[in-house]
């Protein structure tokens, strides 16, 4: 098959463009959202030795078992210590490799599909051009920013490399298995695919659905699911399923022990269904039109009716695609997209986020693969005159993604830019509280007080029972800004909500600064010998 450009050159070009787009991230620092726990204050990664390896593989850290991710951070720490440049560089390079892998996957999917694939691919500029568009649509899409620019999300890009490699090796396996002279190569590709899948689970366990995704590929576009092949195709997946089940059980056990999963008593199934449906709706919308991206999308309380409406529409649309007389390829595209979302939907809720950009990293591959096949097939039908038109439409889309990504990168420059973006999109009390805590941490006490004022003004019914925390935070910032009289008032309000020893101790400090020694001594006595630091306290703690 003659092409104007080797696929390897196209893949390299996609990787280079992706790297250039993400270069500004190299100047960014850590953000105080998980980065301290994963990197800055993580004793596991400070040594690169056998003990680190054994500890990474034998137990969970920060509530999760992902040994390869921890080891990748340990390698970075070995070379860079706590210089964020090196961690960002690794994330960018891994993502660039993933963009290249997408090109190879799209090419291989076009070659081995069971619907006259060879007929559709003709020599010329169009095919490599479409492959480049495929790689760039993945690599430069704004939904990738969170996975790349956030150091903590190393698990996404590392998992992506192993997942994409597993899929690529599987496609190569299918190609060689149909070649009488390629049996030995087919066995090698199968083993490499399985090895990469297991490795992906050790980077991030959300890839447990990959065996089912491979079955979807067997169905379409590979066309392997006929009667004589069903048994063989299913048996091929047995080792994948064994690994997936073992890791799923282990991960759920760890999450349960650490109480990471939200209980169904506090978050009922009907609400989870509405939140999940809304998430799928938003993922589809943002893939097509990535506007209004926020790094933190909290579940509203109560769950709004519009979530239920979106979930209903999602179910109707999915049912229509799956059960109406729609092409098998579109059904497969839908399943390939939905499957990797299942582990991160609200059915397994482990936080208060409704949806997140990073969760689209693996699902986006579905759109790229099937859309590439669609364009290649359309070009084969309409002829070379229309190929130019297809590329002229595709190229501006890529540039739109690149422009939007370049703007979205700035959100991850610092903790301040992160929470400022969240507040710009949806000014909730919890967002002002988080930015206020950051301002307090870096010594900008007046700015912290202003944010705590905004947080208190926006307290919801759900947050009202914990409002004393906001008064305590504001009091602490007022105290540091030498407004001790106002700090005493806020600490008193906090104590009325929860008589925590830390509140008495800090009010005592403010009272002593005001010259009220007797009142201060009374507070110190009530604080006890170990009052602790001010944090977010629940009732009874």
Topology:
Blueprint: H1 7-22, H2 35-40, H3 50-58, H4 67-80, H5 84-112, H6 117-120, H7 126-139, H8 145-149, H9 154-177, H10 183-201, H11 210-219, H12 230-257, H13 269-288, E1 297-298, H14 305-323, H15 328-338, E2 353-355, H16 364-382, H17 384-409, H18 415-425, H19 429-441, H20 445-457, H21 467-480, H22 484-497, H23 501-513, H24 517-527
Antiparallel strand pairs: 1-2
pLDDT under 50 segments (min length 5)? Answer: 115-119
> What is the tally of beta strands?
2
Q: Please state how the strands of the largest beta sheet are arranged side by side.
A: 1-2
The SSE string, one letter per element, is HHHHHHHHHHHHHEHHEHHHHHHHHH
Sheet of most strands: 2 strands, antiparallel
Number of helices: 24
Which descriptors would you attach to this protein?
elongated, Serine Threonine Protein Phosphatase 5, Tetratricopeptide repeat, 541 residues, mainly alpha, two-stranded antiparallel ribbon
Summed up:
The chain has about 550 residues and is mainly alpha-helical. The chain contains 24 helices and 2 strands.
Describe the structure.
The longest helix has 29 residues, at 84-112. Helix 1 (7-22) packs antiparallel against helix 5, helix 5 (84-112) packs parallel to helix 9 and helix 15 (328-338) runs antiparallel to helix 16 (364-382). This protein has helices at residues 7-22, 35-40, 50-58, 67-80, 84-112, 117-120, 126-139, 145-149, 154-177, 183-201, 210-219, 230-257, 269-288, 305-323, 328-338, 364-382, 384-409, 415-425, 429-441, 445-457, 467-480, 484-497, 501-513, 517-527, and strands spanning 297-298, 353-355. It is elongated. It folds into two domains: 7-415, no CATH class; 428-527, Alpha Horseshoe (Serine Threonine Protein Phosphatase 5, Tetratricopeptide repeat). It is built from 24 helices and two strands. Strands 1-2 form a two-stranded antiparallel ribbon. It is an all-alpha fold. The N and C termini lie far apart (70 Å).
């Amino acid at each position: 098959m003659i092409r104007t450009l080797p696929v390897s050159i196209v893949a390299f070009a996609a990787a280079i463009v992706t790297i250039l787009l993400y270069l500004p991230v190299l100047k960014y620092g850590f953000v105080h959202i998980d980065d301290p726990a994963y990197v800055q204050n993580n004793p596991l990664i400070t040594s690169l030795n056998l003990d680190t390896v054994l500890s990474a593989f034998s137990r969970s850290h920060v509530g999760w078992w992902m040994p390869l991710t921890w080891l990748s951070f340990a390698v970075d720490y070995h070379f860079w210590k706590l210089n964020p440049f090196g961690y960002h560089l690794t994330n960018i390079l891994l993502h660039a490799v993933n963009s290249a892998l997408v090109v190879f996957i799209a090419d291989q999917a076009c070659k081995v599909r069971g619907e006259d694939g060879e007929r559709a691919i003709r020599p010329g500029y169009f095919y490599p051009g479409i492959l480049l568009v495929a790689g760039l649509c993945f690599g430069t899409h704004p939904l990738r920013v969170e996975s790349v620019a956030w150091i903590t999300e190393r698990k996404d890009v590392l998992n992506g490399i192993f997942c994409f490699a597993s899929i690529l090796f599987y496609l190569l396996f299918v190609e060689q298995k149909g070649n009488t002279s390629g049996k030995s190569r087919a066995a090698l590709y199968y083993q490499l695919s399985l090895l990469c899948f297991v490795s992906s689970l050790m980077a991030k366990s959300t890839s447990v659905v990959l065996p089912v995704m491979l079955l979807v590929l067997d169905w379409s576009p590979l066309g392997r699911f006929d009667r004589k092949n069903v048994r063989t195709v299913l048996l091929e997946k047995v080792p994948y399923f064994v690994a997936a089940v073992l890791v799923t059980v282990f991960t759920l056990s760890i999450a349960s022990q650490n109480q990471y999963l939200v209980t169904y008593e506090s978050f009922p199934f009907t609400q989870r269904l509405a939140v999940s449906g809304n998430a799928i709706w938003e993922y589809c919308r943002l893939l097509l039109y990535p506007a209004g991206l926020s790094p933190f999308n909290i579940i509203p309380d109560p769950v709004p009716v519009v979530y239920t409406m979106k979930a209903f529409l999602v179910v109707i649309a999915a049912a229509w695609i799956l059960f109406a007389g729609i092409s098998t390829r579109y059904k497969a595209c839908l399943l390939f997209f939905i499957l990797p979302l299942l582990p991160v939907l609200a059915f397994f809720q482990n936080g208060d986020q409704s949806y997140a950009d990073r969760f689209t990293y693996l699902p986006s591959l579905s759109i790229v693969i099937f859309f590439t096949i669609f364009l290649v097939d359309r070009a084969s039908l309409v002829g070379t005159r229309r190929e130019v038109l297809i590329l002229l439409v595709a190229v501006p889309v890529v540039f739109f993604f690149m422009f939007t990504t370049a703007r979205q990168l700035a959100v991850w420059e610092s903790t301040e830019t992160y929470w400022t973006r969240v507040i710009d999109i949806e000014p909730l009390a919890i967002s002002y509280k988080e930015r206020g805590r950051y301002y307090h941490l870096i010594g900008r006490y007046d700015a912290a007080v202003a944010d705590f004022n905004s947080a208190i003004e926006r307290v919801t019914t759900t947050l009202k029972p914990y409002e004393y925390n906001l008064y305590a935070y504001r009091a602490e910032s007022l105290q540091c800004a030498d407004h001790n009289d106002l700090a005493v008032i806020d600490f008193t309000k906090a104590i009325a909500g929860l008589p925590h020893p830390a509140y008495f101790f800090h009010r005592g400090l403010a009272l002593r600064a005001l010259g009220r020694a007797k009142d201060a001594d009374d507070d110190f006595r009530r604080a006890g010998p170990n009052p602790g630091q001010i944090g977010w306290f629940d009732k009874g703690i």
